[in-house]
Amino acid sequence: MKCEANDLNQYRCELPEVNFTHPLIQEKSIELFDGALTELEKIEHAFTFVRDDIAHSWDIKSERVTCEASEVLLHKEGICYAKSNLLAALLRSQGIPTGFCYQCLILFNTPADGYCIHALNAVYVKSINRWIRLDARGNKEGIDAQFEIEEEKLAFCVNVALDEKDYPMIYSKPHPKTLAVLREHTNALDMYRRHLPESL
Question: Which residues form the Transglutaminase-like domain (predicted)?
Fold first, then answer.
């Protein structure tokens, strides 16, 4: 992995989509992050909350499109692009550097179905002096993403033989292509089936 920005503060900034000063985010942060928690515990609490308590739109067959972290939290749903915005907001509210990472994956079952960009997060863990990747997409049958420090356990393992790939960059902001698709569509199911970007 490599960082888009050299300054860790770029990974702590508030953004329109990572709006951690919003009252809803602040309220959830107080609930999630007890003052006695360690850095690692805060990261795990935030990750587990977004993974388990925020539904993936496709999994629940919801047409609602969410984008901003506060909107994702309010409605408790979103696709991976939106869920990564919320996880970043919660962690940045605690001053924990959090970025955005991407994979190119087969959209459904075979290459004939096409490809899509999948979003996850990278978090800088000060206590171990390195970045770790976390995928809060949401678990279901066949998907078992976990909070791991030593050996990452993401929602998806790329299959290079099928032209899937991990993008190595840790971005300080959500990629413009992911934001554009959320802004341009009002039906999450149609967006997911037909309009997700295929590459960065």
Answer: 32-136
User: Taking the domains of the chain in order of start, what are their residue ranges?
Assistant: 2-194
Host H or E run for residue 46: helix 39-53
For the whole model, what pTM was predicted? Answer: 0.97
Contact 106, 125 (CB under 8 A): no
Single-letter amino acid, residue 169 = M
Helices (H), 67-169: 69-75, 80-92
Q: What is the pLDDT of residues 47-58, one digit of tens each?
A: 999 999 999 999
CATH architecture entry for 2-194 = Roll (3.10)
